[in-house]
Amino acid sequence: MSALIECVPNVSEGRRGEVIDAIWAALGAVPGVVLLDRSSDASHNRTVLTFVGDGKSLREAVLRLYEETLARIDMRIQHGEHPRMGAVDVVPFIPVREVDTAYCVDLARSVGAAVAERFDVPMFLYAEAASRPERKVLANIRKGEFEGLATKLAQPEWQPDFGPARPHPSAGASAIGARPFLIAYNLQLNTADVKVAKEISRSVRASSGGLQNVQAMGVSLEDRGCAQVSMNLLNFEKTPLYRVQELVKAEARRFGATVTDSEIVGLVPQAALNGAAAAYLQVGNWSPDLILEERIRAERERHLADSALPDFLSRLSSADPVPGGGCVAALAGSLGAALVAMVADLTMKPAFEGVRDQAERLGKSGEALKADLLQGVEVDARAFEAVMAALDLPKEDDAQKAVRRQALQDATKGAADAPLLAAEKALKVAEDANEALAIGNPVAASDAGVAALMALSGVEGSLLNVAINLGSIKDDAWVRERRERATALLARVRALRAELWELLGDKIPEVARLLEVGV
Questions:
Q1: Radius of gyration over every alpha carbon of the chain, rounded to an integer in angstroms
Q2: pLDDT at res. 511
Q3: Which one of the listed residues 21, 41, 82, 161 is annotated catalytic?
Q4: Cα–Cα separations (whole angstroms), residue 124 to 112, 127, 166, 179, 477
Q5: CB-CB neighbours of 6 under 10 Å
Q6: Per-residue model confidence (pLDDT) at position 34
Q7: Disulfide engineering: 407 pairs with which of 54, 348, 390, 497, CB 3.0-4.6 Å?
């Protein structure tokens, strides 16, 4: 499996749908980024964006986020119930798979420095990436909000970690960091008295002596005619949802109020909901194994016939355009890489001691390329979906048409770059496969040959998807550079294919005989 990181930026806009649409489309156009959720609140005037990817793709996505947001949000005229200090207010990185918190800390520092340099925005490191203890808590950094930034940044103890010691005129400042999963959880009350919500929040939050791992504030939701206890739950395993909910209810009763409903902003881990359900139902023998879907998923993973591959093939044969040819090309490359790793492993035997180091290198390369190209299947699918999302943007006036036109160009570039990257990786697989065929265990010669053929088909198939998108891109210099890369790849494919059949003829006598009769 390849590295996977969640990024959950909060931007200071929750009312203008066209602005949020444009930002969302720009993020979706970044190769390797998978968009998961966006949640906007008009009263808070804030949107929470959730997407995942590896470090490289998230770095590009965050830079694109700032580029789009700074062009569309002016903090000098922005107001809402939620505290804020910047157009892009906060950018957290959360480890999901094959990475740890330390990796996300390094990513936050690298991206924070890049944002400050490119956009001249003061950047504070927070949470696990904090450079000072007092900056670990986001509320401390945000205190004074946008309007108090100039005074705050003039203080020696509040110099930013990156960027100028003055606010960006329209974008303010930002916090960027690394943290565990956080649940944004709000409870609405049957009263419009915000003082009640503030008193409850004071009793609940950790900073006032309440529950650990809970941040809370009381706000007024004028559009809903009620007060709200707005919370961030920093560690749902130590301080679970149901415990927070019950304390808020108990505190509300002191004021003659009740909780009318709740809402989750963004996404929530399944384990948090499972724990709340088990507690409220008082399930004495609770275990995740009791959940039907979990047991089915576990059993399916044990049986190839019921695994994800038939599901993928079913989706592929449907009328849905995703997945399509680009996904299949990347998958072909990944299959070739897996076979290279297998041939390398079969060559790691005493009889082939002379090529052991070479085989070990090929094995490591095969495993890495297998993961990269498998991720490329998803990248290609998301790139195409970004094009479809851009096509769906409104175009009722000139401003909307301009936003849609730019979003479509950005998405189409992503749809061309995704298969180009896959083609380059698949070409490396083909080179490795030919090398494995030349030095590998003879019993695996046909496997090495199939690896090369799959990889070469992956390159050619990916290049078809590059070509079909280049014609729609108006940036001549950008197109010229991609066309040159694609042409060089195709020339190399032809050379590798000729080399492959020559090697196969040497390694497998029957292939030589077939070649002699023109097959």
A1: 27
A2: 87
A3: 82
A4: 8, 10, 12, 14, 36
A5: 21
A6: 86
A7: 390
Instruction: From the candidates 21, 41, 89, 380, give the one annotated as an active-site residue.
Output: 380
Residue 175 has φ and ψ, to the nearest 5°, of -115, 140
Pair 231, 244: CB distance under 8 Å:
yes
Measured distance between the N- and C-terminal CA atoms of the chain, rounded to whole angstroms: 39
Among candidate residues 20, 144, 35, the one with its CA nearest the CA of residue 85:
144
Q: What local confidence, expressed as pLDDT, does residue 305 receive? A: 44
d(CA 328, CA 128): 39
Contact 70, 20 (CB under 8 A): no
183-289: CATH topology:
Alpha-Beta Plaits (3.30.70)
pTM of the model: 0.64
Identify the pLDDT of residue 403.
87
Domain 4-178 indexed as CATH 3.40.1030.10: no
Q: What dihedral do alpha carbons 152, 135, 8, 239 form, nearest 10°? A: -130
Domain 303-516 has CATH 1.20.120.680: yes
Closest to 189 (Cα-Cα) out of 199, 179, 175:
199
Report how far apart, in Å, the C-alpha atoms of 447 and of each of 295, 310, 507 are: 35, 23, 12
Is 380 in the active site?
A: yes
Of 307, 313, 334, nearest to 2 by C-alpha is 334
320 is catalytic: no
- Backbone region of residue 225 per phi and psi (left: phi > 0; alpha: psi in -120 to 50; beta: other values): left
Percent of the chain surpassing pLDDT 90: 69
**Ranges of the chain with pLDDT below 70:** 1-2, 297-308, 517-519
Say how many C-beta atoms besides its own lie within 10 A of residue 354's C-beta. 9
Report domain extents, the chain. Answer: 4-178, 183-289, 303-516
The number of angstroms, rounded, from the C-alpha of 188 to the middle of its chain's C-alpha atoms is 31
Residue located via tokens 């175009």: 395
Angle (CA) 125 43 220, round 5°: 100
Distance CA 386, CA 322 (A): 11
Predicted confidence at residue 518, as pLDDT, reads: 58
Cis peptide before 160 (omega within 30 of 0): no
CA 519/CA 504 separation, integer angstroms: 13
User: Which residue matches tokens 């974008």?
Assistant: 171
DSSP string, 349-377: SGGGGGGHHHHHHHHHHHHHHHHHHHHHH
pLDDT, position 307: 55
What's residue 103's pLDDT?
95
Judged by DSSP in three states, 217 sits in: strand
Beta pairing partners, 88: 11
Which whole-number Å values give the CA distances from 246 to 9, 242, 277, 442, in the listed order?
Answer: 29, 6, 13, 68
